[in-house]
Design brief:
The chain is built from two helices and six strands; from the N terminus they run αββαββββ. By secondary structure, the protein is an alpha+beta fold. Strand 4 and strand 5 form a beta hairpin.
C-alpha cells in the first residue's frame, strides 16, 4: 500500500458515518456504512470497495467466503455483490474465525 492509497483510505473512513449493526451485536459484532448516506463520496465508496476486493484475503464466515481487508486493527468487507448492487461496507475489530 502506497502513501496515496493510505491517505485515500484514511480520508474515506473518517468521512462516512459508521453505524453499529444492532442485530448482530452478540453474534457477529460489526459496524457498517451505506453508499447512499454520502452520495458526494460515491466515487470514493466504489474505489474503496474495489480496493478491498483487490487487496483483501479470502476467509470463511460460516458457509460463505468473503474477502476481508485488514487495516489499522479492523477488517473491512462487502457482501461480494456486483458493484451496481453493492451498497454496504462492513468493518469490525472482532478477529475471531467464524467456521
Amino acid at each position: 500500500m502506497n502513501n496515496d492509497e493510505t491517505e485515500r483510505i484514511n480520508k474515506y473512513i473518517v468521512s462516512v458515518r459508521w453505524q453499529n449493526a444492532k442485530s448482530y451485536e452478540k453474534t457477529a459484532p460489526h459496524e457498517y456504512t451505506i453508499r447512499q448516506w454520502k452520495p458526494d463520496l460515491e466515487e470514493e465508496f466504489i474505489w474503496f470497495v474495489n480496493y478491498i476486493r483487490a487487496n483483501g484475503v479470502k476467509e470463511w464466515f460460516y458457509k460463505k467466503q468473503n474477502i476481508y481487508f485488514y487495516y489499522k486493527g479492523l477488517k473491512y468487507w462487502t457482501m461480494g455483490d456486483a458493484m451496481e448492487n453493492t451498497w454496504v461496507i462492513n468493518r469490525t475489530d472482532d478477529m475471531k474465525a467464524y467456521r
